[in-house]
Specification:
The protein is built from four helices and no strands. By secondary structure, it is mainly α. The relative contact order is 0.15.
Length: 127
């Protein structure tokens, strides 16, 4: 079934992206950058890799990627929305609890948003 194949590929790509996103976030916050810009920057790094990887691996094929300007604009719109939600949640944890707990919460926040992102990507961005 196509959704199972795409779902498993999305998870594989997503795990790598969450690790990269998380590492960049931790390095930036350890370097003294505030939580909000650190989260936006780390998600941007993941997004650049994610657009390409999902267009090639998850929703396209290596010889027929699903990329292009129209899809990138849709991807950017979805990314802005997801980044707003992610940043809000991670910043709340950092502000109300601790930065260290925000480091732990970030992968959980991103995993939760990934479920929504899969369906948005499948039915709107890469269709």
């Amino acid at each position: 079934m196509i959704i199972a194949r795409q779902g498993s590929r999305f998870v594989a790509v997503g795990v790598g992206l969450v690790i990269i996103d998380w590492l960049v976030f931790v390095v930036l916050t350890l370097s003294g950058l505030a939580t909000i810009p650190s989260n936006v920057c780390s998600r941007a790094v993941g997004a650049l890799l994610g657009f390409w990887a999902n267009g090639h691996v998850t929703f396209g094929e290596p010889d027929q990627p699903r990329l292009g300007l129209r899809r990138f604009v849709r991807y950017a719109a979805a990314w802005i929305t997801m980044t707003f939600l992610s940043t809000l949640l991670v910043a709340l944890v950092a502000d109300r609890l601790t930065l260290e707990l925000a480091w732990l919460a970030k992968p959980l926040v991103e995993a939760g948003l990934a479920v929504v992102s899969f369906f948005v990507s499948r039915h709107w961005v890469y269709r």
